[in-house]
Structures are given as C-alpha cells and as structure tokens.
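Dear support,

We are seeing what looks like truncated structure output for some complexes. This example has two components. We would appreciate it if you could run it in full and send us the complete token output so we can diff it against ours.
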Amino acid sequence: MADLHPDNPYAPDRFPDRNKPVEFPPEAKKKFDYILTRYPTKEAALLPTLHLVQEVWGWISPEAVLYVGELLDLSPATVFGVVSFYNMYNQKPVGKYHLQVCTNLSCMVRRAYDIYDHLCDKLDVQPGATTKDGQYTVVEVECLGSCGTAPVVQVNNEYHENMDVTKMDALLAELK
Amino acid sequence: MDQIKVLLANIDKPNSTSIDVYLDGGGYKAVEKALKMTRDEVTQLVKDSEMRGRGGAGFPTGMKWSFVPKNAPKPTWLLCNADESEPGTFKDRVIMEKDPHLLIEGMIISAYAIGSNPMSYIYIRGEFYYGATVLDKALDEARAKGYLGKNILGSGFDFDITVARGAGAYICGEETGLIESVEGHRGQPRVKPPFPAVVGVFGGPTVVNNVETLACVPLIINNGAEWFKSFGTPKNTGPKLYCVSGSVRKPGVYEFPMGINLKELIYDHCGGILGDRKLKAVIPGGASAPMLKPDEIDLPLNFDAVQKAGSMLGSAGIIVLDDSVCIVDAVWRLAKFFAHESCGQCTPCREGTNWLESVLDRIERGEGRPQDADLLLSMSDNIGGKSLCALGDAAIGPVISSVKKFRDEFIYHIEHKSCLPETVRYRRLDRAVAAH
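Here is the complete output from our reference environment:
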C-alpha cells in the first residue's frame, strides 16, 4: 500500500489490518486491570493504557488503536484522536534508541543544534526517521524541562544532561 | 540577598527521597497538625499567608480554595499540576525527584482543606519518567505508613494519590487542558466559565495547584502564616524557586525569599554571563514572558514588580541571552515552540502561531520584506485575547517585546539580509525542520 503520509515522519503509514489483532501479554493485562481501578471512568484510563501499549510494543500500531478502543469502549477515531494529539505516542515504529534532542531556546544557546546536526549526519538519517538497521531514531523535541543542565538529550525514557558533541559520541558508543 | 534553604531544605540529604529521611527531618508533622484543625482553619491559614500560586498566574492560593462550593452535588477533586513544560522552567522537577514526600504531604493537607474525595492525581509530564517512578515509590511508602489510604491517622479522612503521566503536550499545563487530559481526552482547554472550582474534572469542583505551591503548604502549617510572610514583601510572600538558564556561568535552581533582584541574581549568584560576553536580553518568567533589555533588569523578581516592568514573573524561568544570540533566531525558536504546541482548537492561535514562525523564519533567512516588523505586530494583535486559553497570548509575548525593543536588529536583517556581525550561528539554516 502507498504511504498514507509520505511527508510526515510521525503520521501512521497504513490502515489497520483487521486480520492481525493484537492482545496484551498477561503481565501487561494485569497492569491494565490495575489502571482501571485508579480512575472513575473507563475513558480516563486511555492515556495510561496507551503508555502501556507503547511499553509493550514500542509504538502504537493501527491494530493497537482498535484493541484499546475495544478495551475501553471507545471508537477507534476517539483513540486515534488522542494518539495523534500527544507527542510521545509513536505512530510509527521507532529505533531501539529513540534519540530526542531538545533544541528549545535554553538548549539552543548552549549549542544543542550542533548535537542534532551531528547525529543526523553521523547516523545518516533524516530528522524524525529511523536508521536502516532499526537502531536509532533521531528527533528534535521541544523543551524537556531540564534547561539548567542544557543541552539535554533524552534517550528512550532517560535524560542525558550537560551534553555536547563529544559526550554524544561517547554515549552512542555505549548504545550499540 | 542570601540564598535560603527552606523549600529545598531536604534535597542535599543522602537518600532524600525515602520516607525515613523525610520523617527524621520532621516530615508529616504538618499532616498530623492539619488533620486536628478544621477545614476552614487550614484554608484561613493559607489565606493569611498571602501565598500566591507558583504556576504562573500568581493567583492567591487560599482564595482559590475558598471558591470551591461546600455542598456540591458531585465530589470535589484536587489535581497537582506537574506538567512543567514552559521553556526555561525546571523547578518542580527538583521537588518531585529529590523531595517527593514534601509534595505528597502538601497534597494531603490541601485535599483535606478543600474537602476532596478520596482520589487525587499528580499530572506529571510524560517525559519526567524518572520523576514519576520516584513519586510512585514515595506514594507506596506513604501508604505503608498510613499517611495515605483510609482513615488517615485516625481522623476519618480518606485520601489517595495516583500519578497520571501526560504524553508530551505543553497545553496540558493549562488548567482546563490538564482536566481534559486527566479525563482521557485531547488536552484542549475549555470555555470558561464555568470555572474549574465549580465544574472541573469528572464534572465536580476542582482545584488545580502547582507542585511548588503544594510544597509550600506543609511549611505554612508547621511555621504559621507570619513566618511565611517574613519572606518577601506584602502581597508577594514566601520562599520562591528561581530557574536560571541560557548564557550564564552557573545555571540552575536557586531559592530566595520572593523578590530577589534580577541583576543581582544573574551577576552575583549565577556567575555572570557566559564567556564574559555582554548581556543582550532576559526573559524573566518562562518563554511566554516579554523580554527585558539590560537596562531594565534592576528590579525585584516578584509578581507585581515584574508586571510593572511590562513583563511577568510567570513560572520564574529566567532565560538569559548574551550578545552572540541573534534575537530574530531566538524569537523564531520560541515561535516554533508555540506553533508546535498550539492545540488547534481556536483559529487565531492555530493559524497565527504558524504565521509568526514563518515570517520570523523568512526574516532570519534574509528573505524578510520591509513591512515584516509591522506585520509581526499586526499579526500578534490578531492573536492576543482572541482564543480560549492563554497560549496565544503567551506566543505573542516574546514577539511583540522583541520587535519593539530590538527593532533595529529586525530592520538590519531585512536590509542586509543577514544577522548582526557580532552574532553567532546556533543552527544550520539548510537543515530541514520536521513537520509539527
């Protein structure tokens, strides 16, 4: 099938395949049941459930959107509306290491764009895209709330503060 | 003025996040004290302290609490706003990651004062994954010791807290955007009125307080309103966290009595400007605050004084820019942020922020047109005050102030098709900028 959004690296590239339904593994199902007990409505559990989906599969596939809709009695459109609104939900698979470089003002004046450019050049990847071996995704993100230790690079869920190009290279060597 | 360690008294202790260390330092004493008072007495004490909310608007906290109706048909909710996303702000993160029990204690007391139902949420931005794990662990400890759960300390008050993670949307720091997000929706702000104090999350009366605000509550209960007022000046009371970032030698979170002089903060406490360059501009209250020029920074950093100087204290996120920074590029970066974060609900903000970004970008690239400086002002005029929430107004703060205060630099760009010679390139103009 042709890519649905060839210009947008963040948008989903296909429609859901109804012949390939997904399901939480038992451990995640337990977590999901606990999440439900913490909110007064099923709909309110949507954001934590989507975080859980991403924890399990690394991204939120079109099939997962259908699955979450069934779990929470929501239409796929409602679920997809939320997925596409929030930045952290990956609508396409990302690399093993999701390199998120903050380039907002405080990081920018501490030369964050040098790190970002260096990553794009060194890994030979377009912004928002994933390297061919599936190892790294490089993306520019908005303020990560770590301006006092700028520049900051978030790798998956972990912050790396006071970065520069040399430290980034050292970090990349660790992330093989 | 000397630095103080009041809110941040615990953060340097080893293992500061554990409940045992917190209890050793007199922790949870305020809960014991508050639960023996009546709800109205607690609210009155916070009112007497004259504390103003630390999230940005500076609204008196006690007054906010007293707006909650007493006999509402639906349960009352307390929400903690930990969606710290304003560029330049990183104070709440220190409290959550280093002293989570102070926040939890403040929430228990605040919930008691407003008559909250037995559940509450800390809405923490999704990127603060580490902070969320620290809070989860601290909540488990507090439950085990009986400070959360049913019948807390035999008072008959039931209360528990859940950490709700956001997923990367600045707009969820807006009160009603946060409420929508907790309900599981896109974080698009609501029409006000009704205000959250009357109809908020899940249809019940809701109080949304910032992390730093809630962390001040146990201090007020323990030490009294007069003690709290001994910091700062009348109407601008209490200890305050200031976040300094950008071109200073020692960026970081600094605690002072409310009203430290901005010039003193930058030059005496933060070590002055990086690389001995000259100061060019200061943003005193997070990205949305209008810029100040170097001759305007001799002022106390409290809500009223900064407002009088034509800017705002906001979240006290101070971004310092030196003369190597091209002001058009800096404002473009902020405009790009607001264009990215506009929720898309109101046309003036959704379209306007994108146009601000485009026009600033073309000026920076040397493709500016002679009328562009005035065009930015007129576009700003069509965004400000024309949308449901304050994001549009926030976006035009840096634009209007920079065009007015650095007009010569904008004109130089347009006429010479380049930046001022003393500025440095902080980004490559040939790099594609990813779609929003």
